[in-house]
Known about the structure:
The structure holds two protein chains of two kinds. Chain A is an alpha/beta fold.
Amino acid sequence: MDESGNNSIKADDPIIRIRDLVFCRGRRTILDGVSMDIQRGSIVAFMGPSGAGKTTILRLISGQLRPDEGTIEINGQLISAMSDRELKLFRRDIGVLLQDGALFTDLTVFENIATPIREHTSLPEPLVRRVVMSKLSAVGLGGTEDRMPHELSGGMARRIAFARSVVLDPDIMLYDEPLTGLDPIAVSTIRRLMRETNNALGLTSVIVTHNVNQISNLVDYCYIIASSRIAGEGAPRDLIDSSDPGVSQFMNGRVEGPIPFHYEPPGAPWRLLD
Amino acid sequence: MSKVNLENRTGVISGPVSQAGQCLLFLFRMLAGIRFSLTQIQTVMQQTYLIGARSLVIIMICGFFVGMVLSLQAINALEQFGASDQVSVLVGKSLFRELGPVLTALLFAGRAGTSITAEIGLMKATNQIEAMELMAIDPIHRIALPRFAAGLISVPLLTAMFNAMAILGSVVFSIGVMDLDSGIFWSKLQTSIYFQKDFIGGVWKSFVFGGTVSLIAVYFGYSARPTGAGVGTATTNTVVLSSVLILIFDFIMTSFLT
Ligand SMILES: Nc1ncnc2c1ncn2[C@@H]1O[C@H](COP(=O)(O)OP(=O)(O)OP(=O)(O)O)[C@@H](O)[C@H]1O
Ligand SMILES: [Mg+2]
């Protein structure tokens, strides 16, 4: 998976560059030898079965976890070598949408979205208000600014969290399951927002998902993560028609195939005796 | 699958010692975040209001009744020596030196300490702490520090309220019910309570207790396992450990102050 195997989509100067990444939890190897180049301005999807390590890769990219082996470079900077201070500066330029939104429950919707602005800029209050309100109406939830998070539905909370994560106009957006549990209209809204923010701000987006159909015409490039490694990669259309058994199993949602459904294959302890 | 979990193997001695060490480290990390900026002062004031005001009613009610029962017991005992006019001395001394700071801190641990632990623990369980880290906001400075500072400020103020209400309770019982002379009550109180020895000593204690309870509350909340059960355990631990430490520190401080 080096320079030799490059597709046309890969120009030079990737914004995220991962090499031979290995990450273990206890004795379990979650990721084993993952390498990828993510191009500036692209929208990339990580797909794969539940528990494959998609969220784990996002956490490694955002510097919350440190790799056991291998390197992650963002804009040419090595994440694993960053001090706490550098990591903090770096995180101002990435936006993360967590799997469950994680709104601050003690703050109103308005204050939730305003928190990153207040923390990292010294904009005057009227300007803060304008930015927050414009993000709110972009996610279609203008008028909810005075509500508390517990007064929102799950989908609304996700959209507010989306607004909060893009409010500082980051360079890189990491989305963990941004579309799960949303109604079809909200899915289209968020999808359009992701595309628009990506084009307008020239940012790079990484989307974690297991729903193949929801993102197939949104993303430029897909990585399928299964069994601790990249089982397949390519443009969504190529992957759907792929002849690789693992890729085709996942894209078509078949039970039979090389990707196991069980966390540990049944009878694993006995298999060790073979 | 005989997997030995080394992380959870803590001995009788090494467990508490390493916990105490981590708690101290946590304190230093918190103190490193002191900025005296306007927003920080605002959040501390807001938390002081939330934490202090929430505990105010219970502290006042308890103070009032403690004052009454103290007077009742004191008058009962003093009457045998024909010295029931000394009641305000006994009530005042025991209040300012011991009962005020200790009981306020114990009540505060039960009322505010638990809610601080539960609140921070829940924030952790719902990934809010993680979200904050990802926004490059230090949750120790943003969440823990204002609550710690608010506790440190609230407990001495609440102790003052407790003492005032207890004196009021004593007045109501001794003068109102037992018909003691109000002039003697107040003049005995005034002449026998020493500002330095009795009053300042109590204030010192209440600062130490406030700091102890708030530190334990924020630390246990922050280090709680991010599950419902984990938050529950952490909340219980906050009450138990704070109460024990308040009483131990009270003895240590009393033996040094007097
Ligand atoms: N804190 C943790 N401690 C131990 N193991 C963990 C922890 N977090 C995740 N894991 C393990 O790491 C593996 C990968 O988890 P991860 O959250 O990355 O999966 P995922 O691909 O995001 O799954 P999903 O689609 O269900 O969100 C899982 O098998 C999980 O058991
Ligand atoms: Mg996940």
